[in-house]
Amino acid sequence: MPSLPRLRSPLSRLTARLAHSALPRRTVRLKLTLLYGALFLLSGAALLTITYLLVLGSNGGSLSGGQPAPDGGGPRAGETGGHSPPVPPPRGRIGESTRDVLPAAAREIMELQRDAVLHDLLVQSAIALGLMSVISIALGWVVSGRILRPLRTVIGAAREISATSLHQRLALEGPSDELKELGDTFDGLLGRLETSFEAQRRFVANASHELRTPLARQRTLGQLALSDPDADVTSLRAAHERILAAGAQQERMIEALLTLARSHAGIEVRRPFDLDRLAREVVAARRTDAEQRRVTLRCALAATVAAGHRPLAERLVINLVDNALRHNEPYGWVEVATADEPGRAVLTVANSGPVVPPSALDQMFQPFQRLGDPRTNKEGLGLGLSIVQAIAVAHDATLAVEARPEGGLVFTIGFPHPPGHQPGPPTDHRQERPPAHRPGPPPGHRKEPSPAHRPGPPPQRRGER
User: Which positions, given as ranges, span the membrane (predicted)?
Assistant: First the structure.
Protein backbone atom coordinates (compact mmCIF):
# COMPACT_ATOMS: atom_id res chain seq x y z
CA MET A 1 0.00 0.00 0.00
CA PRO A 2 1.56 3.33 -0.99
CA SER A 3 2.46 5.66 1.78
CA LEU A 4 0.63 8.91 2.43
CA PRO A 5 3.50 11.27 1.39
CA ARG A 6 3.77 9.54 -1.99
CA LEU A 7 0.06 10.12 -2.58
CA ARG A 8 0.26 13.76 -1.53
CA SER A 9 3.10 14.56 -3.90
CA PRO A 10 1.19 13.91 -7.17
CA LEU A 11 -1.93 15.53 -5.73
CA SER A 12 -0.03 18.65 -4.71
CA ARG A 13 1.63 18.89 -8.14
CA LEU A 14 -1.73 18.48 -9.87
CA THR A 15 -3.36 21.07 -7.64
CA ALA A 16 -0.54 23.54 -8.21
CA ARG A 17 -0.74 22.96 -11.98
CA LEU A 18 -4.50 23.51 -12.05
CA ALA A 19 -4.21 26.63 -9.92
CA HIS A 20 -1.45 27.97 -12.14
CA SER A 21 -3.36 27.27 -15.34
CA ALA A 22 -6.53 28.85 -13.96
CA LEU A 23 -4.84 32.16 -13.23
CA PRO A 24 -5.12 34.65 -16.10
CA ARG A 25 -2.02 36.10 -17.64
CA ARG A 26 -1.03 39.35 -15.95
CA THR A 27 -1.40 41.65 -18.89
CA VAL A 28 -1.35 45.42 -18.77
CA ARG A 29 -5.03 45.45 -19.67
CA LEU A 30 -5.88 43.23 -16.69
CA LYS A 31 -3.76 45.35 -14.36
CA LEU A 32 -5.44 48.56 -15.54
CA THR A 33 -8.88 46.98 -15.16
CA LEU A 34 -8.16 45.82 -11.61
CA LEU A 35 -6.71 49.22 -10.80
CA TYR A 36 -9.85 50.97 -12.09
CA GLY A 37 -12.10 48.60 -10.12
CA ALA A 38 -10.07 48.97 -6.92
CA LEU A 39 -10.08 52.75 -7.15
CA PHE A 40 -13.84 52.83 -7.72
CA LEU A 41 -14.44 50.40 -4.86
CA LEU A 42 -12.34 52.44 -2.44
CA SER A 43 -13.92 55.71 -3.54
CA GLY A 44 -17.44 54.26 -3.28
CA ALA A 45 -16.76 52.74 0.15
CA ALA A 46 -15.40 56.05 1.42
CA LEU A 47 -18.42 57.93 0.04
CA LEU A 48 -20.91 55.50 1.59
CA THR A 49 -19.09 55.59 4.93
CA ILE A 50 -19.28 59.39 5.02
CA THR A 51 -22.96 59.28 4.03
CA TYR A 52 -23.75 56.69 6.73
CA LEU A 53 -22.04 58.76 9.41
CA LEU A 54 -23.90 61.90 8.34
CA VAL A 55 -27.25 60.09 8.39
CA LEU A 56 -26.39 58.54 11.75
CA GLY A 57 -25.66 61.94 13.25
CA SER A 58 -28.74 63.50 11.71
CA ASN A 59 -31.09 60.80 13.02
CA GLY A 60 -29.48 60.90 16.44
CA GLY A 61 -29.99 64.64 16.70
CA SER A 62 -33.60 64.60 15.49
CA LEU A 63 -34.71 61.56 17.50
CA SER A 64 -32.82 62.01 20.72
CA GLY A 65 -32.23 65.72 21.06
CA GLY A 66 -33.61 69.12 20.18
CA GLN A 67 -36.53 71.24 21.53
CA PRO A 68 -40.14 70.09 21.54
CA ALA A 69 -42.52 71.53 19.02
CA PRO A 70 -45.02 74.22 20.09
CA ASP A 71 -47.84 71.72 20.02
CA GLY A 72 -45.95 69.21 22.13
CA GLY A 73 -43.67 67.68 19.49
CA GLY A 74 -45.50 64.32 19.35
CA PRO A 75 -48.08 62.82 17.06
CA ARG A 76 -51.52 64.32 16.99
CA ALA A 77 -54.39 62.65 18.72
CA GLY A 78 -55.76 59.80 16.63
CA GLU A 79 -52.62 59.51 14.42
CA THR A 80 -50.28 56.54 14.43
CA GLY A 81 -46.58 56.47 13.68
CA GLY A 82 -45.87 53.26 11.75
CA HIS A 83 -47.13 50.23 13.67
CA SER A 84 -47.02 51.92 17.06
CA PRO A 85 -50.18 52.88 18.88
CA PRO A 86 -51.12 56.54 19.16
CA VAL A 87 -49.02 58.33 21.67
CA PRO A 88 -50.38 61.37 23.40
CA PRO A 89 -48.37 64.47 22.94
CA PRO A 90 -45.86 64.98 25.69
CA ARG A 91 -46.30 67.85 28.03
CA GLY A 92 -42.95 68.73 29.29
CA ARG A 93 -41.29 71.88 30.32
CA ILE A 94 -39.57 74.10 27.84
CA GLY A 95 -35.93 73.06 27.44
CA GLU A 96 -36.48 69.33 27.86
CA SER A 97 -35.72 67.05 24.91
CA THR A 98 -38.32 64.94 23.17
CA ARG A 99 -36.59 61.75 24.25
CA ASP A 100 -36.80 62.75 27.91
CA VAL A 101 -40.50 63.53 27.94
CA LEU A 102 -41.64 60.46 25.88
CA PRO A 103 -42.71 57.33 27.62
CA ALA A 104 -40.32 54.39 27.69
CA ALA A 105 -42.35 52.39 25.14
CA ALA A 106 -42.29 55.27 22.67
CA ARG A 107 -38.57 55.74 23.12
CA GLU A 108 -37.97 52.03 22.43
CA ILE A 109 -40.10 52.15 19.28
CA MET A 110 -38.18 55.18 18.02
CA GLU A 111 -34.87 53.40 18.62
CA LEU A 112 -36.08 50.35 16.68
CA GLN A 113 -37.22 52.52 13.76
CA ARG A 114 -33.91 54.32 13.75
CA ASP A 115 -31.92 51.07 13.72
CA ALA A 116 -34.08 49.63 10.94
CA VAL A 117 -33.61 52.72 8.76
CA LEU A 118 -29.83 52.66 9.23
CA HIS A 119 -29.68 48.91 8.55
CA ASP A 120 -31.68 49.29 5.34
CA LEU A 121 -29.45 52.15 4.26
CA LEU A 122 -26.31 50.11 4.92
CA VAL A 123 -27.54 46.98 3.10
CA GLN A 124 -28.86 48.83 0.08
CA SER A 125 -25.69 50.93 -0.17
CA ALA A 126 -23.53 47.79 -0.06
CA ILE A 127 -25.61 46.16 -2.80
CA ALA A 128 -25.40 49.30 -4.95
CA LEU A 129 -21.65 49.50 -4.35
CA GLY A 130 -21.17 45.87 -5.39
CA LEU A 131 -23.19 46.28 -8.58
CA MET A 132 -21.39 49.47 -9.53
CA SER A 133 -18.01 47.82 -8.83
CA VAL A 134 -18.84 45.02 -11.25
CA ILE A 135 -19.99 47.57 -13.83
CA SER A 136 -16.84 49.66 -13.30
CA ILE A 137 -14.63 46.59 -13.83
CA ALA A 138 -16.43 45.79 -17.07
CA LEU A 139 -16.15 49.39 -18.26
CA GLY A 140 -12.49 49.47 -17.22
CA TRP A 141 -11.82 46.34 -19.29
CA VAL A 142 -13.42 47.92 -22.35
CA VAL A 143 -11.77 51.32 -21.91
CA SER A 144 -8.31 49.86 -21.24
CA GLY A 145 -8.67 47.69 -24.34
CA ARG A 146 -9.39 50.74 -26.48
CA ILE A 147 -6.51 52.66 -24.94
CA LEU A 148 -4.05 49.80 -25.45
CA ARG A 149 -5.12 49.08 -29.03
CA PRO A 150 -2.15 51.00 -30.53
CA LEU A 151 0.19 48.92 -28.37
CA ARG A 152 -1.26 45.73 -29.82
CA THR A 153 -0.63 47.19 -33.28
CA VAL A 154 3.00 47.84 -32.35
CA ILE A 155 3.39 44.33 -30.92
CA GLY A 156 1.89 42.72 -34.02
CA ALA A 157 4.09 44.75 -36.34
CA ALA A 158 7.19 43.96 -34.29
CA ARG A 159 6.43 40.24 -34.59
CA GLU A 160 5.95 40.40 -38.35
CA ILE A 161 8.80 42.73 -39.29
CA SER A 162 12.11 41.03 -39.99
CA ALA A 163 15.40 41.97 -41.65
CA THR A 164 13.78 41.56 -45.09
CA SER A 165 10.69 43.67 -44.34
CA LEU A 166 12.12 46.70 -42.59
CA HIS A 167 10.37 48.93 -45.12
CA GLN A 168 7.06 48.42 -43.32
CA ARG A 169 5.80 51.18 -41.02
CA LEU A 170 3.12 51.42 -38.34
CA ALA A 171 1.77 54.82 -39.42
CA LEU A 172 -0.49 55.12 -36.35
CA GLU A 173 -3.39 57.50 -36.67
CA GLY A 174 -5.14 59.42 -33.93
CA PRO A 175 -4.45 62.28 -31.56
CA SER A 176 -0.91 63.35 -30.85
CA ASP A 177 -0.53 61.61 -27.49
CA GLU A 178 2.09 59.36 -25.91
CA LEU A 179 0.98 56.28 -27.86
CA LYS A 180 1.13 58.17 -31.16
CA GLU A 181 4.62 59.38 -30.20
CA LEU A 182 5.60 55.78 -29.42
CA GLY A 183 4.44 54.66 -32.87
CA ASP A 184 6.33 57.48 -34.59
CA THR A 185 9.45 56.64 -32.59
CA PHE A 186 9.13 52.99 -33.61
CA ASP A 187 8.79 54.03 -37.26
CA GLY A 188 11.93 56.14 -36.93
CA LEU A 189 13.75 53.17 -35.42
CA LEU A 190 12.67 50.98 -38.33
CA GLY A 191 13.94 53.61 -40.75
CA ARG A 192 17.34 53.72 -39.10
CA LEU A 193 17.53 49.93 -39.00
CA GLU A 194 16.62 49.73 -42.67
CA THR A 195 19.37 52.20 -43.55
CA SER A 196 21.87 50.33 -41.38
CA PHE A 197 21.00 46.90 -42.82
CA GLU A 198 21.13 48.25 -46.36
CA ALA A 199 24.53 49.81 -45.72
CA GLN A 200 25.76 46.56 -44.17
CA ARG A 201 24.61 44.48 -47.13
CA ARG A 202 26.22 46.94 -49.53
CA PHE A 203 29.41 46.92 -47.48
CA VAL A 204 29.60 43.11 -47.44
CA ALA A 205 29.02 42.95 -51.19
CA ASN A 206 31.67 45.59 -51.89
CA ALA A 207 34.16 44.02 -49.47
CA SER A 208 33.66 40.62 -51.08
CA HIS A 209 34.26 42.12 -54.51
CA GLU A 210 37.35 44.04 -53.39
CA LEU A 211 38.83 40.97 -51.67
CA ARG A 212 38.04 38.67 -54.56
CA THR A 213 39.88 40.87 -57.08
CA PRO A 214 43.40 40.38 -55.60
CA LEU A 215 42.75 36.67 -55.16
CA ALA A 216 41.71 36.33 -58.80
CA ARG A 217 44.77 38.33 -59.88
CA GLN A 218 47.06 36.08 -57.84
CA ARG A 219 45.51 32.94 -59.30
CA THR A 220 45.74 34.27 -62.85
CA LEU A 221 49.40 35.27 -62.45
CA GLY A 222 50.27 31.86 -61.04
CA GLN A 223 48.44 30.02 -63.79
CA LEU A 224 50.13 32.10 -66.52
CA ALA A 225 53.56 31.49 -65.01
CA LEU A 226 52.96 27.75 -64.81
CA SER A 227 51.47 27.45 -68.30
CA ASP A 228 54.38 29.25 -70.00
CA PRO A 229 56.66 26.51 -71.46
CA ASP A 230 59.49 29.01 -72.03
CA ALA A 231 59.39 30.43 -68.49
CA ASP A 232 62.77 31.28 -67.05
CA VAL A 233 63.96 32.63 -63.77
CA THR A 234 63.36 36.25 -64.77
CA SER A 235 59.73 35.72 -65.83
CA LEU A 236 58.96 33.59 -62.79
CA ARG A 237 60.52 36.21 -60.50
CA ALA A 238 58.42 38.93 -62.13
CA ALA A 239 55.27 36.83 -61.74
CA HIS A 240 56.01 36.17 -58.08
CA GLU A 241 56.70 39.86 -57.45
CA ARG A 242 53.30 40.72 -58.91
CA ILE A 243 51.70 38.02 -56.76
CA LEU A 244 53.40 39.47 -53.68
CA ALA A 245 52.14 42.96 -54.63
CA ALA A 246 48.60 41.62 -54.90
CA GLY A 247 49.01 39.95 -51.50
CA ALA A 248 50.25 43.21 -49.99
CA GLN A 249 47.19 44.99 -51.37
CA GLN A 250 45.01 42.29 -49.83
CA GLU A 251 46.74 42.76 -46.45
CA ARG A 252 46.11 46.51 -46.61
CA MET A 253 42.47 45.82 -47.40
CA ILE A 254 42.09 43.47 -44.43
CA GLU A 255 43.87 45.92 -42.13
CA ALA A 256 41.57 48.72 -43.25
CA LEU A 257 38.51 46.54 -42.67
CA LEU A 258 39.73 45.65 -39.18
CA THR A 259 40.33 49.33 -38.40
CA LEU A 260 36.83 50.18 -39.63
CA ALA A 261 35.31 47.43 -37.48
CA ARG A 262 37.35 48.55 -34.47
CA SER A 263 36.15 52.13 -34.97
CA HIS A 264 32.51 51.06 -35.15
CA ALA A 265 32.94 49.13 -31.87
CA GLY A 266 33.53 52.39 -30.00
CA ILE A 267 36.07 53.42 -27.37
CA GLU A 268 35.95 52.06 -23.84
CA VAL A 269 38.81 54.02 -22.24
CA ARG A 270 39.59 57.61 -23.26
CA ARG A 271 42.91 59.17 -22.45
CA PRO A 272 44.17 62.68 -23.16
CA PHE A 273 46.73 63.17 -25.93
CA ASP A 274 48.37 66.14 -27.66
CA LEU A 275 46.58 66.57 -30.96
CA ASP A 276 49.15 69.05 -32.29
CA ARG A 277 52.06 66.68 -31.58
CA LEU A 278 50.23 63.82 -33.27
CA ALA A 279 49.53 65.94 -36.35
CA ARG A 280 53.19 67.05 -36.46
CA GLU A 281 54.39 63.43 -36.43
CA VAL A 282 52.04 62.51 -39.28
CA VAL A 283 53.14 65.51 -41.36
CA ALA A 284 56.81 64.63 -40.83
CA ALA A 285 56.18 61.02 -41.90
CA ARG A 286 54.34 62.09 -45.07
CA ARG A 287 56.73 64.80 -46.21
CA THR A 288 58.73 62.48 -48.49
CA ASP A 289 55.55 61.28 -50.19
CA ALA A 290 54.49 64.91 -50.68
CA GLU A 291 57.82 65.76 -52.32
CA GLN A 292 57.50 62.81 -54.69
CA ARG A 293 54.05 64.04 -55.69
CA ARG A 294 55.35 67.63 -55.99
CA VAL A 295 52.87 68.84 -53.37
CA THR A 296 53.73 71.40 -50.70
CA LEU A 297 52.91 70.11 -47.24
CA ARG A 298 52.69 72.79 -44.57
CA CYS A 299 51.27 72.98 -41.07
CA ALA A 300 49.99 75.59 -38.61
CA LEU A 301 49.77 73.82 -35.26
CA ALA A 302 48.58 75.30 -31.99
CA ALA A 303 48.81 73.39 -28.72
CA THR A 304 45.60 71.54 -27.90
CA VAL A 305 44.64 68.41 -25.98
CA ALA A 306 41.99 65.90 -27.03
CA ALA A 307 40.49 62.89 -25.28
CA GLY A 308 40.15 59.50 -26.93
CA HIS A 309 42.16 56.65 -28.41
CA ARG A 310 45.47 57.96 -29.74
CA PRO A 311 46.19 55.16 -32.30
CA LEU A 312 42.73 55.58 -33.84
CA ALA A 313 43.10 59.36 -33.88
CA GLU A 314 46.48 58.91 -35.59
CA ARG A 315 44.84 56.71 -38.23
CA LEU A 316 42.25 59.46 -38.79
CA VAL A 317 44.93 62.10 -39.38
CA ILE A 318 46.91 59.74 -41.64
CA ASN A 319 43.87 58.98 -43.78
CA LEU A 320 42.99 62.67 -44.13
CA VAL A 321 46.56 63.64 -45.12
CA ASP A 322 46.87 60.69 -47.52
CA ASN A 323 43.54 61.56 -49.09
CA ALA A 324 44.66 65.20 -49.48
CA LEU A 325 47.95 64.14 -51.10
CA ARG A 326 46.37 61.53 -53.35
CA HIS A 327 43.56 63.71 -54.70
CA ASN A 328 45.69 66.73 -55.46
CA GLU A 329 47.43 68.24 -58.47
CA PRO A 330 51.10 68.89 -59.31
CA TYR A 331 52.53 71.88 -57.44
CA GLY A 332 49.48 71.89 -55.20
CA TRP A 333 49.44 72.23 -51.43
CA VAL A 334 48.13 70.54 -48.28
CA GLU A 335 47.77 72.33 -44.97
CA VAL A 336 47.26 70.69 -41.58
CA ALA A 337 46.21 72.97 -38.71
CA THR A 338 45.14 72.52 -35.09
CA ALA A 339 43.37 74.98 -32.82
CA ASP A 340 42.13 75.03 -29.23
CA GLU A 341 38.52 76.17 -29.18
CA PRO A 342 36.00 76.17 -26.29
CA GLY A 343 35.05 72.55 -25.65
CA ARG A 344 36.86 71.20 -28.73
CA ALA A 345 40.33 70.42 -30.01
CA VAL A 346 39.95 71.23 -33.70
CA LEU A 347 41.90 69.60 -36.53
CA THR A 348 41.67 71.09 -40.03
CA VAL A 349 43.07 69.47 -43.19
CA ALA A 350 42.74 71.54 -46.37
CA ASN A 351 44.12 70.84 -49.83
CA SER A 352 44.04 72.03 -53.38
CA GLY A 353 42.91 69.77 -56.18
CA PRO A 354 40.10 69.17 -58.63
CA VAL A 355 36.71 70.73 -58.09
CA VAL A 356 34.37 68.44 -56.13
CA PRO A 357 30.63 68.84 -56.76
CA PRO A 358 28.59 69.38 -53.59
CA SER A 359 26.40 66.39 -54.42
CA ALA A 360 29.42 64.07 -54.13
CA LEU A 361 30.39 65.03 -50.57
CA ASP A 362 28.16 62.45 -48.92
CA GLN A 363 29.26 59.79 -51.38
CA MET A 364 32.87 60.13 -50.26
CA PHE A 365 32.06 58.67 -46.83
CA GLN A 366 30.52 55.50 -48.24
CA PRO A 367 32.80 52.43 -48.19
CA PHE A 368 34.49 51.56 -51.50
CA GLN A 369 33.24 54.75 -53.15
CA ARG A 370 35.77 56.65 -55.25
CA LEU A 371 35.21 59.92 -57.03
CA GLY A 372 35.92 60.11 -60.71
CA ASP A 373 36.18 57.24 -63.17
CA PRO A 374 36.71 53.98 -61.24
CA ARG A 375 38.62 52.54 -64.21
CA THR A 376 41.33 55.22 -63.99
CA ASN A 377 41.17 56.01 -60.26
CA LYS A 378 42.81 52.83 -58.93
CA GLU A 379 44.84 54.46 -56.16
CA GLY A 380 43.54 53.78 -52.67
CA LEU A 381 41.08 51.24 -51.29
CA GLY A 382 37.99 53.43 -51.02
CA LEU A 383 37.87 53.02 -47.22
CA GLY A 384 39.91 56.00 -46.01
CA LEU A 385 37.11 58.49 -45.43
CA SER A 386 34.77 55.78 -44.15
CA ILE A 387 37.35 55.03 -41.47
CA VAL A 388 37.67 58.76 -40.74
CA GLN A 389 33.94 59.05 -40.19
CA ALA A 390 33.79 55.93 -38.00
CA ILE A 391 36.68 57.14 -35.83
CA ALA A 392 35.08 60.58 -35.47
CA VAL A 393 31.80 59.01 -34.35
CA ALA A 394 33.65 56.75 -31.90
CA HIS A 395 35.31 59.83 -30.35
CA ASP A 396 32.04 61.83 -30.23
CA ALA A 397 33.80 64.29 -32.49
CA THR A 398 32.20 66.63 -34.98
CA LEU A 399 32.96 66.15 -38.67
CA ALA A 400 32.43 68.73 -41.39
CA VAL A 401 33.63 68.85 -45.01
CA GLU A 402 33.60 71.81 -47.38
CA ALA A 403 34.16 71.95 -51.12
CA ARG A 404 36.40 74.84 -52.15
CA PRO A 405 35.09 76.66 -55.26
CA GLU A 406 38.62 76.80 -56.73
CA GLY A 407 39.12 73.08 -56.13
CA GLY A 408 39.98 70.84 -53.23
CA LEU A 409 38.38 70.12 -49.85
CA VAL A 410 38.51 71.33 -46.25
CA PHE A 411 37.94 68.75 -43.50
CA THR A 412 37.29 69.95 -39.94
CA ILE A 413 37.28 67.53 -36.99
CA GLY A 414 36.39 68.69 -33.47
CA PHE A 415 37.61 66.29 -30.76
CA PRO A 416 36.23 66.72 -27.22
CA HIS A 417 38.55 67.92 -24.51
CA PRO A 418 39.36 65.65 -21.56
CA PRO A 419 37.39 66.29 -18.34
CA GLY A 420 38.70 69.22 -16.36
CA HIS A 421 40.60 70.68 -19.30
CA GLN A 422 41.72 74.25 -18.74
CA PRO A 423 42.61 76.18 -21.90
CA GLY A 424 46.14 77.44 -21.58
CA PRO A 425 47.78 80.42 -23.20
CA PRO A 426 48.06 80.24 -26.97
CA THR A 427 51.37 78.50 -27.66
CA ASP A 428 52.68 78.09 -31.18
CA HIS A 429 54.50 74.82 -31.90
CA ARG A 430 54.90 75.30 -35.62
CA GLN A 431 57.95 73.79 -37.22
CA GLU A 432 57.85 76.24 -40.11
CA ARG A 433 56.27 79.56 -40.81
CA PRO A 434 53.17 79.22 -42.94
CA PRO A 435 53.04 81.12 -46.21
CA ALA A 436 51.23 84.39 -46.46
CA HIS A 437 48.32 82.77 -48.24
CA ARG A 438 46.28 80.46 -46.07
CA PRO A 439 43.22 78.70 -47.44
CA GLY A 440 40.27 79.91 -45.45
CA PRO A 441 36.71 78.65 -45.46
CA PRO A 442 35.28 78.98 -48.96
CA PRO A 443 32.42 81.37 -49.51
CA GLY A 444 30.77 78.86 -51.79
CA HIS A 445 29.32 75.48 -51.30
CA ARG A 446 29.33 73.77 -47.95
CA LYS A 447 28.07 70.26 -47.31
CA GLU A 448 28.05 68.38 -44.06
CA PRO A 449 27.28 64.74 -43.41
CA SER A 450 23.78 63.92 -42.25
CA PRO A 451 23.04 64.11 -38.47
CA ALA A 452 23.03 60.30 -38.37
CA HIS A 453 26.78 60.36 -39.14
CA ARG A 454 27.69 63.35 -36.93
CA PRO A 455 27.52 63.07 -33.16
CA GLY A 456 27.12 66.82 -32.65
CA PRO A 457 26.92 70.21 -34.32
CA PRO A 458 29.87 71.21 -36.50
CA PRO A 459 32.51 73.40 -34.87
CA GLN A 460 32.39 77.08 -35.54
CA ARG A 461 34.75 78.26 -38.23
CA ARG A 462 37.20 80.99 -37.46
CA GLY A 463 35.68 84.20 -38.66
CA GLU A 464 32.13 83.11 -37.87
CA ARG A 465 32.24 83.86 -34.16
Answer: 34-55, 121-143
The single-letter code of the amino acid at 102 is: L
The whole-angstrom separation of Cα 267 and Cα 274 is 18
Residues contacting 125, CB < 8 A, separation 6+? 48, 51, 52
The pLDDT value recorded for residue 6 is: 52
Of 164-178, 318-332, 334-348, 449-463, where does mean pLDDT reach its minimum?
449-463
Q: Where are the domains of the chain?
A: 24-85+93-147, 272-465
Mean pLDDT, residues 292-317 taken together: 91
pTM for the model stands at 0.51
Residue 115 makes CB contacts below 8 A (sequence gap 6+) with none
What are the residues facing 336 on neighbouring strands?
A: 299, 349
Residue 412 in 3-state DSSP? Answer: strand
Name every residue whose Cβ is closer than 8 Å to that of residue 228 and which is 6 or more positions away in sequence.
Answer: 235
- Let me know: does 149 contact 180? Beta carbons within 8 Å: no
CA dihedral (385, 387, 390, 395) in degrees, to 10, reads -100
Amino acid present at 336: V
Neighbours of 395 (CB within 10 A): 25
For strands 332-341 and 295-301, give the pairing. Answer: parallel
CA 326 – CA 242 distance, rounded (Å):
23
CATH of domain 272-465: 3.30.565.10
Residues 228-264 have pLDDT tens digits of 888 888 888 888 888 888 787 778 777 777 777 776 6
Q: Residue 27, exposed/middle/buried by CB under 10 A (0-12, 13-18, 19+)?
A: exposed
